[in-house]
Amino acid sequence: MKKMIIRTASIEDLPILLDFEQKIIEVERPMDPTIKQNEKINYYDIGAYITDSNTEVVVAEIDGEIVGSGYGQVRDRKRFFFPQKKGYIGFMYVKDEHRGKGISQAIIKYLCHWFQENNLHEIRLTVYEKNPKAIRAYEKAGFEKHLVEMRIDLNNK
């Protein structure tokens, strides 16, 4: 494989990152009937995240081409939890033609190091149960299932 680097995203990367976000939404829409289907939506405020000191947006590059992304974010927890802050990982994306090359693992490793530098020792993320490839990638990185979110659609009962 050609040399891959993981680096902090810059505002100049925003057009590519916004495209990645739309690709994530496109994949996840069929997994979640509550996502609006016929309009452009955004999950993230990526531009604000890039400049936020509590968020580290990163990109993976191979030979100068951005092929993946992710972010780590410091989040407050409810007062009855300890520690008071946790890490959260989101916006994980790797271009189709670069999947299976360890890019998501490299992004997660980079973000874990960033969390450690910020004295955070617990990281959480959410993933659709209907996304087994992503679940396997996170499990490979050491994540374990912790909570199960359930839903019911009363209109279809």
UniProtKB/TrEMBL annotation:
Recorded superkingdom: Bacteria
State the InterPro entries in the record: Acyl_CoA_acyltransferase (IPR016181), GNAT_dom (IPR000182)
Q: Which UniProt keywords apply?
A: Acyltransferase, Transferase
List the PROSITE patterns: GNAT
**For the N-acetyltransferase domain, which residue ranges apply?**
4-157
Fetch the Pfam families from UniProt.
Acetyltransf_1
**Keyword Acyltransferase tagged:** yes
- Annotated source species: Aquimarina algicola
A GO molecular-function term, please?
Answer: acyltransferase activity, transferring groups other than amino-acyl groups
Q: Does the keyword Hydrolase apply?
A: no
What is this protein called in UniProt? GNAT family N-acetyltransferase
Q: Which CDD domains match?
A: NAT_SF
